[in-house]
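Re-run with default settings, no changes from the original entry. Doing this only to confirm the output is reproducible before filing.
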Amino acid sequence: MKRNGYNTNYIRIWETVKIIPEGCVASYGQIADLAGLLGRARLAGKALSETPAEIQLPWHRVLRSSGELAFAKGTEKSLRQKVMLMNEQVSVKNNRVKMRQYQWKPTMEEFIFRLKY
């Protein structure tokens, strides 16, 4: 299904990514699950890769489940993601973030009241 010309599943993913707080990170699978798309981590990645330029997302806060940055170490995109995370005081070492320390763990209330889809 589509809404405003966009895939509704993508919209759910984008709206979920929008509410990740500064200084926190989430995995692709976590975003998919929170968006009601259980087990669809790859869809979350696809949705982020196809985000229209006019939609402002904190995409840099979404990582692999291991805490590894989304892009290969040393690439321009990887360095950009690293800098953006470090600007939010998220420590990045060896292209990885400690998920135990920085992973977003929203309460049900926080999630429901911030979400707008």
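The CA atoms of residues 90 and 106 lie 17 Å apart. The chain has six helices and four strands.
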